[in-house]
Hints:
Layout: E1 4-7, H1 13-21, E2 25-28, H2 35-43, E3 53-56, H3 64-69, E4 75-78, H4 88-93, E5 98-99, H5 106-122, H6 124-132, E6 150-154, H7 158-169, E7 173-177, E8 189-190, H8 194-200, E9 203-206, H9 220-225, E10 230-234, H10 243-251, E11 255-260, E12 284-286, H11 295-315, E13 337-344, H12 349-359, E14 364-371, E15 375-382, H13 384-395, E16 400-406
Parallel strand pairs: 1-2, 1-3, 3-4, 4-5, 6-7, 6-9, 7-8, 9-10, 10-11, 11-12
Antiparallel strand pairs: 13-15, 13-16, 14-15
Helix pairs in contact: 1-11, 5-7
Amino acid sequence: xxxxxxxxxxxxxxxxxxxxxxxxxxxxxxKALSEAELVEALNGTAxxxxxxxxxxRSKTMVTAAVLEHATSLxxxxxxxxxxxxxxxAAANRRGIPxxxxxxxxxxxxxxxxxxxxxxxxxxxxxxxxxxHQGVWxxxxxGCYEIRGKTVGIVGYGHIGxxxxxxxxxxxxxxxxxxxxxxxxxGNNRQVSSLAQVLAEADFVTLHVPExxxxxxxxxxxxxxxxxxxSHLLNLSRGTVVDIDALAxxxxxxxxxxxxxxxxxxxxxxxxxxxxxxxxxxSNVILTPHVGGSxxxxxxxxxxxxxxxxxxxxxxxxxxxAVNFPLVEPPTDFNRFHRIxxxxxxxxxxxxxxxxxxxxxxxxxxRQILSTDxxxxxxxxxxxxxxxxxxxxxxxxxxxxxxxxxxS
Length: 407
């Protein structure tokens, strides 16, 4: 039976095309679903079989309850960078790998950062708004070239390092802080603390994941450490910055401007009355979480995540999963059947499974096992004649979580 794939939140056509070419049956919806709606959709309606693969972006919450009730689900793909919208631990316990696209929108976000730095330095958004309103306010007051200024990057991963490369090409000095040592690109310079970045930079740009350590990383205390007249950009996660404290720092003129793309609470659908204390504050660029929203990024994300999901469905590869033991088995098993077994990581699993194979005089052609603290992921290539019997016996073993046969 063909694998059924449910894609939500308007995932790019490139993903739909790849799934279709792989023989999957795809349903694509433009919106996010609530917890109850998602469970109902995944389990299928009257006359409609359940789905095995789920694709989402950032708005759909895949909770422990969803994972518990979606009993046919075998994989989740996050068509974005972040995976905090999925309960990764619960997915792991239920044998469901979660994949994402950590690189595909890097350039799109980095280019937006560069554009916003220029806009903030020249107060371009305020001038544009004024002219649209019929106001002619030609002034150089508070407007500067970015050449020779210092950009401070907090989080020097794929996006942060790309920002460093682009801004250095524009003549900016680049310093960065990361919790781990990172190889500098070009003349970028790593500093030893967040406080040093805040104190030295004319533009501070944040590129960190959402973790307990980064929640409220920037509060009133950190904002006061920033240079008077400097600027803050947040295109990472909405929980990283205390928005009320940021508004106060801007209204007091301690900061000269800010660019915010992510918020502590974001609408699940497009609305006409988004509320924020930053609305109306001068030289503040507010965008609706569009850092990676370019045609190129969405096309590449669609391809990247669909590709790894298809590899998991077709050959059992877990490379790229963020919550799972990583295995990259050979793709050629045409003369055999491949049994994929996900089990609790307890002693004696291989002994019991090999006993099952031996009892039916089966011949294991290849066996690959990888484990983490909770689960084991086992790939067995076995003679076609015994695969069905072995599969039925293994999935009944007390430690088995999921078991499927690939042919």
